[in-house]
Amino acid sequence: MSHPGMRPEFGEAREIAAGSYQGRLAFTMAGDWVILMHVTLPGGQKLERQLDVNGVR
Amino acid sequence: MSGESPAFDLLRVPWIGRFFGWRHARTFLQIPILIVAIAMIVHGLFGPTLAPKNLATTISWVHFRGVLVLVLLCAGNLFCLACPFMLVRQWARRWFHPARTWPRKLRNKWLSTGLFALILFVYELFDLWSSPWWTAWLIVAYFASILAIDGIFKHAVFCKFVCPIGQFNFVASTLSPLEVKVRDQGVCVPCQTKDCIRGRRDPSGLVTIQRGCELALFQPSKAGNLDCTFCLECIQACPHDNVGILSRAPASELTTDPRRSGIGFFSRRKDIAALALVFTFGALLNAFGMVSPVYALESWIGRVLHVSHEAPVLGLIFVFSLIVEPVLMLGLAAWLTRVWAGSRRPTVPLMVRYAYGLVPLGFGMWLAHYSFHFLTGILTFIPVAQNAVASLGRPLLGEPLWRLTGVPTRFVQPLELGFLVLGLAGSLLVTNRLAQDDGAAHPVRAFIPWATVCLLLWVAAVWLIFQPMEMRATFMG
User: What is the mean pLDDT of residues B16-26?
Assistant: First the structure.
């Protein structure tokens, strides 16, 4: 549940162990956030996944 | 006044004047807006479900609203001029010939004021800003409503008595610097044909070759912008080229109370006063619905009333904000104007009279709110459009540049504050002018209660724009 036109935040996740990725994000305002993950697999295949993070205070 | 010469007439400007005099000028402006509206509907129904990636939500809630209020501030009611709904209605009327007249009981602003409040309510309840699907259906519903109503009833019934966006524009345009107006009243005096309101028919009398004003505004006695859609019909109908788009002092029409064509006296129109109040208090409420304290208030009301659904809680907030609060504030101010300043007007007519004085403050709040979203997200339509085109198979506009947003918040907030100061100044000027007329013996005493109302609302507005927003952000990575 996000308002269009608001400034998006960007971040990049790095592999910290086999199959595990870690990144840092800044939620710059309160509310319900939506994280869109753009993943590129070793074969070049691209995926997009959405993760809802509700109730950020 | 015969021979009156305006300071500025938009129609006297080369090219612009020629363009507005062209009989297809309105259609020319409506077609691109209609194409955008269709794109918004299609993308809203079939595109991404995430609001910041969808044309329906981005253009509706960021760009349309922002451009609308800024154009109203700088020029006039140009959205109604370019209204895409009217273009579709115009095409439909080639096949449908409405014969009925709008019921007399509905020839007022009560229905449209209720619909205006309802849209504000639905916007908050269903979080329309975050739903491309419902935003698209809202646009579809608009097209369907206008086709149904103007397909049955004659004239521009939808614009005058139903359209909530139109009512917003009418009220806001009382503060616009331009007005469609007679250039020289002396030219109108001997006019027998009155084409500006009757239109023109061919010699058989069966075919209309030029419409007159469909909103029943007779140019010589039209005063102000209320109910004027800038449709240009009167300009093109006048055989004497005596109607222009003239400059005037914004808000000047709120300080006088002449008998207005198609409207009557402001002071006798409780429905228009109610519309002005919903416009003003709705501006604060609409902003309040998007900041942190509203959630604390909602949960408190829910706990006290043992209610877990949002609709009744939000309904209570709306009833209090749009009915109880204005009635209490204006009622108290009107009572003080009577007993302290000695005004002879009864309380309710005083409330009606001064309700118009709050419009500048309300417009200041709408400007502050909508210009914030518009300016901070002004470039977001670019990646959204790029993404929409790319989703068709080829990224003809390039890969989406999601980092494009707009002006940083720190630069926009002073502008918001400026709009609020402008609104306060306008309301103080209008209410002071009304108080001068009302309290002949004690004009300052008549003014103080209304100035207090204006200041209280202004403080609330300033408090609102500095509150942290909620539920408005997106993370993309």
Answer: 91
B139-164 pLDDT per residue, tens: 999 999 999 999 999 999 999 999 99
Tell if the CB–CB gap between A30 and B468 is shorter than 8 Å: yes
**Which candidate from A1, A30, A36 shows the least CB-CB separation from B477?**
A36
Residue B124 and residue B310: Cα distance in Å, rounded? 10
Number of domains composing chain A: 1
Q: Report CB contact under 8 Å: B52, A29.
A: no
CB A27 within 8 A of CB B473: yes
Dump pLDDT digits (tens) for B406-451: 999 889 999 999 999 999 999 999 999 999 988 778 899 999 999 9
Measure the CA angle with vertex B197, ends B148 and B10; round to 5°: 100
Closest-CA residue of chain A to B474 = A8
Q: Does B473 touch chain A (CB under 8 A)?
A: yes
Tell me whether residues B477 and A7 touch, CB distance under 8 A: no
Per-residue pLDDT band at B5 (split at 50, 70, 90): low
Which range is least confidently modeled, A32-41, B55-64, B83-92? A32-41
The predicted model scores a pTM of: 0.92
Domain ranges of chain B: 265-467
Q: Rounded to the nearest 5 degrees, what angle is found at the Cα of B192, between the Cα atoms of B186 and B198?
A: 105
Q: Do B475 and A34 touch (CB under 8 A)?
A: yes
Q: Which of B325-334, B390-399, B413-422 has the lowest mean pLDDT?
A: B390-399
Question: What is the domain range of residue A10?
Answer: 1-51
- B182, β-bridge pairs: B243
Residues of B in contact with A29 (CB under 8 A): 468-470, 472-473
User: b vs e for B187-210, b when ≥16 Cβ sit within 10 Å of the residue's Cβ?
Assistant: bbeeeeeebbbebeeeeeeeeeeb
- For A24, the closest chain B residue by CA position comes to B477
Note whether B343 contacts A: Cβ–Cβ < 8 A.
no
In angstroms, what CA-CA distances link B11 with B14, B19, B174, B385, B429? 8, 9, 20, 35, 30
**Would you state the pLDDT for residue B84?**
97
Q: Does any domain span residue A56?
A: no
* C-alpha B278 chain-centroid distance: 11
Is A2 part of a structural domain of the chain? yes
Q: What ipTM was assigned to the predicted interfaces of this complex?
A: 0.77
Q: What CA–CA distance (Å, rounded) separates B295 from B290?
A: 9
Q: Please report the residues numbered 2 through 61 in chain B whose beta carbons come closer than 8 angstroms to any beta carbon of chain A.
A: 50-52, 54, 57-58, 61
Which whole-number Å values give the CA distances from B219 to B184, B231, B233, B272, B425, in the listed order? 11, 13, 11, 20, 30
Q: Which of residues 1-57 of A touch B (CB under 8 A)?
A: 1-13, 23, 25, 27-38, 50, 53
